[in-house]
Amino acid sequence: MNETAEASVCAGAAHRTDRTHLLRMPAAASLVRTARGAVREVLAAWEVPSEVGDDAVLVVSELVTNVIAHTPSTEVECRLRARGDLVRVEVTDQVPGPTTPHRRAPTPGGVSGRGLALVGELSRAWGVRECPRGTGRTVWAELAAAREPATAAGAARPAASPRPPHGGHRRERRAT
User: Fold this and answer.
1) CATH class of residue range 2-9+17-102+111-144
2) If 0-12 CB within 10 Å is exposed, 13-18 middle and 19+ buried, where does residue 55 land?
3) Which pTM was predicted?
């Protein structure tokens, strides 16, 4: 595990701390629980509100599980970044080439196929990027560092925008 912190000047604040935490582990199903615990511990130490931490834990759990279930990777890298009002989760696998994860349509009684839908619902935006030299890919998700206030209808999150027409995986939210 590796953590770095650096001070930066942000608009509207004298100093904010940019933080990064890196967790590398074997791609084994038994270690998904370890990843969840490490994420929860780090975000609590960074004083991220617990409900946001819970969302980040679920996102990490889904993304790490996807690496284990759907790739031949032997190692998983999970990076957390906190900067200003944003928490970014990145999970990197070892799959070379231009393959990308995609949403599946789950069957009503099925136990799988909902992971990326959950990631999309819990995050402001998410996407996929190829690693340098084709050594793998990183699936990332950005979460608000503080839970957005509920709307008049009581929804805690705004509605999601449709997928971009070019087939990109970046998913943005629009205000309601």
Assistant:
1) alpha beta
2) buried
3) 0.72
For the chain, the DSSP string reads: -EEEEEEEEETTEEEEEEEEEEEEEE--GGGHHHHHHHHHHHHHHTT--HHHHHHHHHHHHHHHHHHHHH---SEEEEEEEEETTEEEEEEE----SS---------TT-SSS-HHHHHHHH-SEEEEEEPGGGS-EEEEEEEESSPPPP-TT--SSPPBPPPPTT------B---
Query: How far is residue 39's CA from residue 56's CA, in Å, rounded to a whole number?
Result: 8
> Per this entry, what is the length of the chain?
176
CB-based contact 159:174 (threshold 8 Å): yes
The domain spans of the chain are 2-9+17-102+111-144
Distance, in Å, from the CA atom of 45 to the CA atom of 28, rounded to the nearest integer, reads 26
CB count within 10 Å of CB 152 equals 6
Nearest to 125 by CA among 82, 166, 161, 79: 161
For 103-152, what is each residue's pLDDT tens digit?
666 667 655 657 788 888 899 999 998 887 778 999 999 999 876 555 44
